[in-house]
Design goal:
Blueprint lengths: L1 H20 L1 H12 L11 H13 L2 H13 L8 E3 L4 E3 L2 E3 L4 E3 L2 H5 L2 H4 L34 H18 E5 L9 E3 L3 E3 L4 E5 L3
Antiparallel strand pairs: 1-4, 2-3, 5-8, 6-7
Bound molecules: protoporphyrin IX containing FE.
Pfam family, one: p450
InterPro entries: Cyt_P450 (IPR001128), Cyt_P450_CS (IPR017972), Cyt_P450_E_grp-I (IPR002401), Cyt_P450_sf (IPR036396), Cytochrome_P450_3A (IPR050705)
Family: Belongs to the cytochrome P450 family.
């Protein structure tokens, strides 16, 4: 349950936080969503709905960069990326004894200026994902044969939710957006509360 639900919902909480803080990002995302060839009347048909949803999210470049940037800045499952050495080894001059537990420091990698510049890695900037990066620079889902098994499902789920939400609503900062945010380490690394306002777009 923690791997399947807590992760995706927490990542979406961070997504709404960043959308509330960056109206220009929200507008770009809504512009991409508004161009999608989706007829809302078709949503009553289950088969059409399934086909359109998958098809939609696969072709959304800005959405992909947006979600990637959310997970770069908030690698919510950093603490589970661990490996135990099965034999004595040396990595970059560091001796690692058999049985040692090694924890990946994903935050340092995701906020590294050389890997993620020239734009400040502490700034939310989806377009940085247009540039090809080092294959190990982006680790929200871990790496190697034991990387997240639910990655593709999680990405599709998040993108579909964002399409449906942002098609109808805009997200504005709520009263306590910053003061209640307070990131905490629980089952995943999560904000305490995300205060946003949903405003119907047709209003
Ligand atoms: C945004 C959403 C998610 C994030 C950021 C995330 C992240 C991670 C990370 C970092 C790992 C450890 C990978 C490693 O050690 O290299 C992992 C493992 C795992 N994840 Fe996810 N995950 C997400 C969603 C999901 C979903 C939706 C499912 C299931 C439907 C899932 C199932 C699993 C499982 C079963 C493992 C263990 C894989 C193994 O040990 O072989 N995850 N995830």
């Amino acid at each position: 349950m923690a791997a399947g639900y807590e992760t995706t919902s927490t990542a979406l909480a961070y997504a709404t936080y960043e959308l509330a803080r960056h109206p220009e990002v929200l507008h770009k995302l809504q512009a991409e969503i508004d161009q999608l060839p989706l007829d809302n009347d078709d949503m009553s048909n289950e088969e059409t709905k399934k086909y359109l949803d998958y098809d939609i999210v696969a072709q959304m470049n800005y959405m992909d960069m947006f979600v990637s940037e959310v997970l770069r800045m908030y690698p919510i499952a950093n603490t589970v990326i661990q490996r135990r050495a099965s034999e004595d080894t040396v990595v970059q001059g560091i001796q690692i004894k058999k049985g040692t537990l090694v924890q990946a420091d994903v935050y340092s990698v995701h906020y590294d200026r050389e890997l993620w510049g020239p734009e400040d890695p502490y700034v939310f900037f989806p377009e940085r994902h247009q540039t090809k990066r080092h294959p190990m620079a982006y680790l929200p889902f871990g790496a190697g044969p034991r990387h997240c098994i639910g990655m593709r499902f999680a990405l599709i789920e998040m993108k579909i939710l964002l399409v449906r939400l942002l098609r109808e609503y805009s997200i504005l900062p709520g009263e306590h957006l910053e003061s209640k945010f307070n990131i905490r380490e629980r089952a995943v690394i999560t904000p305490e509360e995300v205060w946003v306002k949903l405003v119907k777009r047709s209003d």
